[in-house]
Amino acid sequence: MTTQPYPVDHELIEAAAHVARTRCRGDNHTMAAAARAQDGRIVTAVNAYHFTGGPCAELVLIGAAAAQGVYSIDTIVAVGDRDRGVVPPCGRCRQVLLDYFPDVKVIVGDEGRVLTVLIADLLPESYVWADHQLDADNAARTPGSSPSDARAD
Prior knowledge:
6 strands
């Protein structure tokens, strides 16, 4: 993990906790997320649980942020309903956050200690989708290769 300490955005944690307390009801919405935009605004969202794998609060937040004109976020946190506190992002959310916002900071930890880390620190030796798209573009332009030679998954 990175040795550079990042400050913990307690206002962001409280924003997510407030949404978790006031908007998460029943089994359909059990997690809330809050992110601080580069311009300082806070965007919030809740998950949309579904047995088919509905989106986590962090993923709903990406869409909600874009709907509000926020395309770059500085820090994100997820908080569970029923006073469960800060919950780290799942693997899928870690990957999506890395792909959308490679420099985003994530608040993780528990009641005793929360800390802020870079998303890349949560995915060491990670697969960076954009890097592989560049490879696909290069392979398509390389003499003697065809676009079908590039892997697109």
